[in-house]
Structures are given as C-alpha cells and as structure tokens.
Amino acid sequence: MEQVIDIVLLAFMVVVALAMIHLRNLFAVVMLSGIFSLLSAALFVVMDAVDVAFTEAAVGAGISTVLMLGTLALTAREESPRPRRHALLPLAVVTVTGAALIYGTLDMPHFGDPDAPIHQHVAPRYIVDSPREVGPPNMVTSVLASYRGYDTLGETTVIFTAGMGVMVLLGGLRSRRRKRRDPASPGSDTGETRP
C-alpha cells in the first residue's frame, strides 16, 4: 500500500512539474511550486521523515512561496515569449546526466534496509551517544541542532538572505511608486526640496 501512495505522489509531482514548465502565467507557476513542495512534504511523511517534511512544508511551500509572490510584484505576470527552437544539446545533456544518476543508484541499499551501512555505524552511535553528548531527549533535535548544526545554520542563512533580498527589492519598488505619485519629493529629478 505504501508503494502505491509513493507512486501516486510521485505521479502528481511529475504532472505539477510539467505544468510549471509549460505555463506562461508566473502567478500560476508560483502556486504550482507551492503545491509541488506540499506534495514532496507528503512524500517525506510517507517515508517516515516527518522532520524533513516539516522543513519542506515550512520553507518550500511557505516561505519560498511568499518570497516568490513578493518578487512577482516587481515583474510582469506573464513570461515574455521566446522564439521556438529545438534544443537537442540540452536534452542530450539532461538525458545523459539522468541516466548517470539512475545508474549510480543501482548499487545503493534498498530503502529501509536494516543491513544498510548507515545502520551499522552512524545510526546506532547517534541513538546511544546523543543523550550524553548533546543533551536533548529528542534524537532529531540533537542531530539537527548539534551533529548537523552547520548545515542547519547554512539553511537558515540562505532563507534569511533571500528574505532580505526581497525586502530590499520591495523597498525600491515602494520608493519608485512614491516618486511617481509625488514628483516634488526630496531626491526627485526636479531638484526642488520640500521644507
């Protein structure tokens, strides 16, 4: 049953990705990217990675969608038309890369295999040593906050930087709108200053 749910979620993700590629309305593309993130969060839940699902839902479907909607205020709603041409070289590169990635997964252990190398050394060490080394009783918290602390800090920095970039862009938009409404404002091209 779990494999059926995985296949259905992956099929929905493929449909959403193909729809995003073909749409020209950028607002619809942003909404579909949020849906894609929610579908991948659901897939993570099915695979018992609830912490990753929570992060994907919060960052991918939440913050990223809000940032992209804020950026849409600065751009046109429709993608500008491009001349149609056949791109065989990019298609070949993508096909070869995809085939190499799939070939690389053939030697991987099966999903959930208790004899996988990670379950022989790393996972037991985290289970046994994390309460003593880190302190929090929740193992996921100790892994994300301590063992993968730099990774978590990097993810937080990326989100913070993206948010600040959108705020700067929106601030420039507000000042341009203010100048259009009130041409005699300080710093406008007329050279006049207000008292």
UniProtKB/TrEMBL annotation:
Which parts of the sequence are annotated with region: Disordered?
175-195
Q: Which Gene3D superfamilies match?
A: NADH-ubiquinone/plastoquinone oxidoreductase chain 6, subunit NuoJ (1.20.120.1200)
What does the entry list under GO cellular component? plasma membrane
Among the Pfam families in the record, one is: MbhD
* Domain MrpA C-terminal/MbhD: from-to ranges: 11-75
> Could you tell me where this protein is found in the cell?
Cell membrane
**Any idea where the MrpA C-terminal/MbhE domain is?**
115-176
Topology in the lipid bilayer: Multi-pass membrane protein
Where is the major localization of this protein? Answer: membrane
Among InterPro entries, the record links this protein to: CPA3_Na-H_Antiporter_A (IPR050616), MrpA_C/MbhD (IPR025383), MrpA_C/MbhE (IPR046806), Nuo/plastoQ_OxRdtase_6_NuoJ (IPR042106)
* Transmembrane segment boundaries: 6-23, 28-47, 53-75, 87-106, 156-173
What is this protein called in UniProt? Multicomponent Na+:H+ antiporter subunit B
Organism annotation? Rhodospira trueperi
